[in-house]
Amino acid sequence: MIEFYLQIKLVHVATIVLSGAIFLARGSALLAGMRWPMAAPVRYLSYGIDTVLLTAAMMLLTILPGALFANGWLLVKVALVVVYIVLGVFALRRGRTRAMRAAAFVLALLVYAQIYFIARAHHPLGALYLWS
Ligand code: HEM
What is the mean pLDDT of each run of 10 residues along the chain (132 residues)? Predict the structure, then answer.
């Protein structure tokens, strides 16, 4: 599968951009009082993109040598993906007040950015490492 590494990584990164853009649009629209972000087609589109994102991630994991993850960046990244998912659920659905949903939304975007920087830097500190 190594011969498809670049294509698989391209799929991973393209779906990251799409997934982030859809979350940004849905979260902002919900906070503005709109209802379309929770419509079934939008939700299923979002689930579909995230499934492709994670499938590509698993394929990259199987292709790459374990030594690439020796400093723990992938472990921190996956832990933050879980945090991002929980925050996303609170931002879009579970947050009881508008303030709670807004706080979860902003935190989720910050966590998403940190996941991105961790991946780019191949370092658990992500943005902090790049700017240090
Ligand atoms: C459980 C979820 C995820 C896993 C297991 C995972 C795993 C990986 C792996 C193994 C790579 C290849 C690294 C390399 O080629 O050197 C990668 C690349 C990347 N991932 Fe993820 N990923 C996940 C989710 C995400 C998310 C949610 C984001 C977005 C914020 C993201 C952003 C990136 C980026 C930008 C790259 C390219 C890094 C580079 O240029 O070297 N990943 N990911």
Answer: 94 98 98 96 98 97 93 97 98 95 98 98 95 85
Domain ranges of the chain: 1-64, 66-132
- How far is ligand 1, taken at its centre, from the CA of residue 58, in Å? 10
Q: What atom in ligand 1 is closest to the CA of residue 69?
A: 10
Q: What is the pLDDT of residue 119?
A: 97
Assign residue 126 a region: left if phi > 0, alpha if psi is -120 to 50, beta otherwise?
left
**Which residues approach ligand 1 with their CB closer than 6 A?**
9, 12-13, 16, 54, 57, 60-61, 64, 68, 78, 81, 112, 115-116, 119-120
